Amino acid sequence: MFGNIELFRLSQAMAGHATTRLNLISQNVANADTPGYQAKDIAPFDALVRDDKPFADLRATRPGHVSGFGGGSDVVVEVGTTVSPNGNSVSVENELLKAAEVQERYDSALAIYKSGLNILRTSIGRR
Questions:
Q1: Contact between 104 and 93 (Cβ < 8 Å)
Q2: Residue 71 pLDDT
Q3: Is the dihedral of CA 48, 54, 57, 61 positive or negative?
Q4: Alpha carbon distance 69, 18 (integer Å)
């Protein structure tokens, strides 16, 4: 029922993107001592929906993603990061900062979803 309302689709896509990005961050932290490992990240969510792309163009990275909102199709290796002597480019401090940013994005997605529900409840006369 709520899948056809654009506001709910947007918040669902934002939450899916945050989940995908947090998975990559956790992989980066887990491989912080792996020789030759290159840190990975994905394009910011606003870059995915900019240029009026329809949400249907977003691809799921695995079957568990809801309604095809994975946002993980743009996984890139980070460039311009400092590489350690063993060839690893993961900075745990940077990954922790990214994780905090992802938490803010996820909280924003939930706030948008809750606001949409409140608007629906108000429009049908419930509080």
A1: no
A2: 45
A3: positive
A4: 11
Q: pLDDT of 64-117, one tens digit each? A: 554 444 444 566 766 657 788 888 989 999 999 999 999 999 999 999 999 999
Q: In sequence order, what are the beta bridge partners of 40? A: 77
Domain ranges across the chain: 2-123
Residue 43 has pLDDT above 90, yes or no: no
CB atoms within 10 A of CB 37: 19
Distance CA 126, CA 117 (A): 11
Q: Rounded to an integer, what is the distance from CA 94 to the centroid of its chain? A: 16
pTM comes to: 0.72
Please, what sign has the CA dihedral across residues 33, 79, 58, 119? positive
Specify the residue for token string 């020789």: 35
